[in-house]
Automatic annotation (TrEMBL):
GO terms for biological process: lipopolysaccharide biosynthetic process. Residues 210-373 form the Glycosyl transferase family domain. Keywords: Transferase. One of its GO terms (molecular function) is glycosyltransferase activity. It comes from Pontibacter virosus. Residues 26-192 form the Glycosyltransferase subfamily 4-like N-terminal domain. It comes from the Bacteria. This is Glycosyltransferase involved in cell wall biosynthesis.
Length: 400
């Protein structure tokens, strides 16, 4: 089977990001012909050089197009439009695939995947990474009502034209079905994590990292990921400031993004705030195993309650319990499996109080971490999730 995947934001484990599709493509390329149509935007963010840019056997068609999380709306639109034009042309010129796989975000990528699939007379699968256009609309990036209506019509038309839809969370699936799409046409395949990388994070590596940042004898509250406008970073900053006198508790924030400058300034004032640079994928797991508690924070917006944050899976795979601020499926999940806690977004005093309560009971916290690690082994293994994706693609292509 020949699979053509359209994914503007391809990256590899040398980058400071989750590598869902790298793992999936590595799995699929051992069994099928895989063509990847992507951009080079993430190459500049590579921290190490341990991995090939794409897995062995994947044919890469790549456009040189800039992209950054710090870009404003106008520059992002230019980036999205440039890649859309490239992906359409390339999708029509490569050898004919058996199935097209379009990955959002942004919505322009699956839109072009759908057009290529229609023009070449092949079925296509729509993987919904985030709910677009709901996300940019709720974040205030799209203000004109006529444009909102047009984007929502485009979104629904893509769901209708796709042969199958993959969502990353149960709440995303419910959203799609709520638009009138048949439930049997939608499959939730969680973001998942790389258990082999988690296992490779040894106690020796953790101890070395602890010494490097002088964290011996400290309880570590970790936020690892994007310092973005959607991630409720100001609440973490305010909670850290409120807990500045708690000498045995340290907030460690690893990543980068919109709040870089504010965090740097705050870290100069607070003895309990440590900033680390973004980490390549394998090193993320050493960082999580350093932590006593991981924060999974987002703003209080309905669209964000449906997302599928990689840090949730990585943390639980490392045996570290989580504190989530989404009132959606992540809250239900951690409470159902008793592997974490919930605190509403935007309430820094309550966040600080909840953190102190969690860290005051080592037995309860460690048991929650063990339960999380157990459920991660059952549900989050990306090798198993890749096999599920393969079955969907085979069925859609009529190969089974």
């Amino acid at each position: 089977m020949h699979i053509a995947i359209f994914n503007q934001h391809h990256h590899n484990p040398d980058c400071p990001a989750t590598c869902r599709h790298y793992t999936f493509l590595e799995y699929l390329a051992k069994r099928h012909k895989v063509s990847l149509i992507t951009s080079s935007a993430w190459k500049q963010l590579r921290i190490t050089d341990r991995y090939k840019w794409a897995p062995e056997g994947v044919e890469v068609y790549e456009q040189e197009v800039p992209y950054s999380n710090k870009m404003g709306v106008r520059r992002r639109l230019v980036s999205y439009g440039g890649f859309a034009a490239y992906s359409l042309a390339k999708g029509l010129s490569i050898p004919k695939p058996d199935v097209v796989w379009g990955v959002s975000t942004p919505l322009t990528t699956p839109w072009m995947a759908a057009r290529v699939a229609k023009m070449r007379g092949v079925p296509w699968v729509f993987e919904v990474q985030d709910l677009w256009p709901s996300f940019p609309i709720e974040m205030g990036a799209v203000k004109r009502e006529w444009l909102k209506r047009r984007l929502f019509r485009l979104e629904k038309s893509l769901y209708q034209s796709a042969s199958h839809i993959i969502t990353l969370s149960p709440d995303m699936e419910d959203y799609v079905v709520g638009l009138g799409i048949a439930r049997e046409k939608v499959t939730t395949i969680l973001n998942g994590t790389d258990l082999d990388m988690a296992d490779a994070a040894t106690p020796e590596k953790v101890a070395a990292l602890r010494r490097q940042y002088q964290l011996e004898g400290k309880q570590v509250v970790l936020y690892a990921g994007t310092f973005g406008r959607a991630n409720d970073i100001p609440t973490i900053m305010q909670a850290a400031e409120a807990m500045a006198n708690e000498q045995d508790i340290v907030f460690v924030l690893a990543g980068g993004g919109y709040y870089d400058d504010e965090l740097r300034k705050l870290s100069l004032r607070l003895p309990n705030l440590v900033l680390m640079p973004p980490q390549p994928r394998p090193d993320v797991f050493t960082l999580f195993k350093l932590a006593d508690l991981a924060l999974i924070t987002f703003n209080d917006l309905p669209v964000l309650a449906s997302n599928s944050p990689a840090k949730l899976y990585d943390s639980l795979a490392c045996g570290v319990p989580v504190l989530v601020t989404n009132p959606g499926w992540t809250k239900t999940f951690v409470e159902q499996h008793d592997c974490g806690w919930y605190c509403p977004a935007g309430q820094h005093k309550l966040l600080a109080q909840t953190i102190k309560e969690i860290l005051s009971d080592d037995d309860k916290r460690q048991q929650a971490g063990q339960r999380g690690q157990s459920i991660a082994r059952q549900l989050f293994d990306r090798q198993q999730l890749a096999a599920q994706v393969e079955q969907i693609l085979l069925q859609v292509a009529g190969k089974v």
